[in-house]
Specification:
Its EC number is 2.1.1.-. Helix content is 28%, strand content 18%. The chain has three helices and five strands; from the N terminus they run αβββαββα. Bound molecules: adenosine monophosphate and zinc ion.
Length: 141
Amino acid sequence: MQKENCIFCKIANHQVPSYTLFENEQVLAFLDLSQVTKGHTLVIPKQHADNVYDLSQADAQAVFAAVPEISRALQQETGAAGMNILSNTGKVAGQSVSHFHLHLIPRHDKHDGFGAKWEVHNDDYTAEELATIAESIKNRL
Ligand code: AMP
Ligand code: ZN
């Protein structure tokens, strides 16, 4: 279903133009208008979902199923040495458009424009604490 005033629903329904790379019944991939690196692509389900929490399993499968082929094409076209694939969920994580999307960002080197601060806290958790955390989450699945 389309959500009113959702820019990505409008793109999925071809009411707003995009630089489309890939399309099938459930999925659309198009260039991000703000290119972090050349070829920076967004992959979306055509069906509206605000974020990963309300993404259906079918749409998740369809979106991720399209990713390897699109990634290979991006890699071949840009000669990228690597790729970051990510989804921002919620404002705190940097989500600015509330329609689930994956960013595919071809990577060349550490100074190509992409950065994700990633501090690790290995020493903050004992093995016992990690086991408790895993068990608590597992109980919700
Ligand atoms: P995020 O900040 O993770 O929600 O990503 C949203 C992305 O959508 C941003 O990188 C924007 O540049 C991109 N964007 C917003 N509007 C459009 C549009 N009409 N066509 C293509 N990309 C867009
Ligand atoms: Zn939408």
